[in-house]
Design a protein that fits this description.
With 161 residues, the chain is mainly α. It is 81% helix and 0% strand.
């Protein structure tokens, strides 16, 4: 019989990791005068939508991680999953720092391409062990794609930085 820590350990790690990445990104996000002065495309989602969308994405990502972890054999497969999630989390946080704190949407545009690629690679890593887990990451990939298009539009409308 599996121990309670063995059963709930991956869930706890995934939940804490999601909260840490979300919290760090939120802390770096400053919707002050600089942000409000940016010209944005008419199709930009309203600011209030970002919190609920990211909450759903982080929840789905945590569930995908748990599904893949539980299905993956111990050893290199699990280490690769951890590495893929760690790199993705760092890139997720870095985008907020570049865009909002450093006020460099142009640098963030390059970084968002790396973030999108990391989500695609995360889907592949998770998909090796859980098809459902990989499917749960599709909204994340689509949202980062939308964020990339929005980032590109902001750079185009507001350059130079």
């Amino acid at each position: 019989m599996e121990s309670v820590s063995g059963r709930w350990g991956p869930v706890a790690v995934a939940a804490v990791s999601a909260v840490v990445v979300a919290g760090a990104g939120a802390w770096l996000t400053a919707l002050g005068p600089w942000y409000r002065s940016l010209r944005v495309p008419s199709w930009k989602p309203p600011d209030w939508a970002f919190g609920p969308v990211w909450t759903a994405i982080f929840t789905l990502t945590a569930v995908a991680g748990v599904l893949a972890w539980n299905a993956a054999p111990q050893g290199p497969a699990r280490r690769w999953l951890l590495a893929a999630f760690a790199v993705n989390g760092m890139l997720n946080i870095a985008w907020s720092g570049l865009f909002f704190r450093l006020r460099r949407p142009d640098w963030a545009l390059v970084e968002v391409a790396a973030l999108w690629l990391s989500v695609a690679l995360l889907m592949l890593a998770v998909g090796r062990h859980s098809g459902v887990g990989a499917a749960l990451l599709v909204p994340y990939l689509l949202w980062v794609g939308l964020a990339g298009m929005l980032n590109w539009s902001i750079v185009r409308l507001n350059r130079p930085f």
